[in-house]
Amino acid sequence: QVHLVESGGGLVQPGGSLRLSCAASGSIFSINVMGWYRRAPGKQRELVATITSDGRTNYADSVKGRFTISRDNDKNREYLQMNSLKPEDTAVYYCNAKVMGSTSTPGRYIDLEVWGQGTLVTVSS
Question: How much of the chain is helix, strand and coil, in % rounded to 5?
């Protein structure tokens, strides 16, 4: 019903920059929260950043001052601008959204948590 697709991952050198994007599509009434998570090799999945529909943001301490999350509500997209990348940022990055999905019944919605397929970011010289 609702799908998220990430793009923008790739190989960058330490100190470089990369911008990830996530597009939400499907039967969406509203997107309350969008965020980015990542899973580094040998580690648990961790929060990177989240952003609410009214623009409030939250960042992991490890990325504060380097990463910026943003969203375009009209386009159902979110972005993650990553600057000053470090080797420890290497991970699969996942888009996440808390969505109110529309249904075939007018005025009725379903609460969904949706994940993208992930995009690999590799920071290496």
Answer: 0, 60, 35
Burial class for 121, CB neighbours closer than 10 Å (0-12, 13-18, 19+):
buried
b/e per residue 73-91 (b: at least 16 CB within 10 A):
eeebbbbbebeebeeebbb
d(CA 89, CA 109): 37
CB 90 within 8 A of CB 40: yes
CB neighbours of 61 closer than 8 A, spacing ≥ 6?
none
Give pLDDT, residue 73.
Answer: 80
* DSSP category for residue 24: E
Residue 67: closest CA among 51, 53, 44 = 51
What are the pLDDT digits (tens) for 25-41? 999 999 999 999 999 99
Nearest 5°: the CA angle 16, 20, 24 is 175
- pLDDT at position 9, please? 97
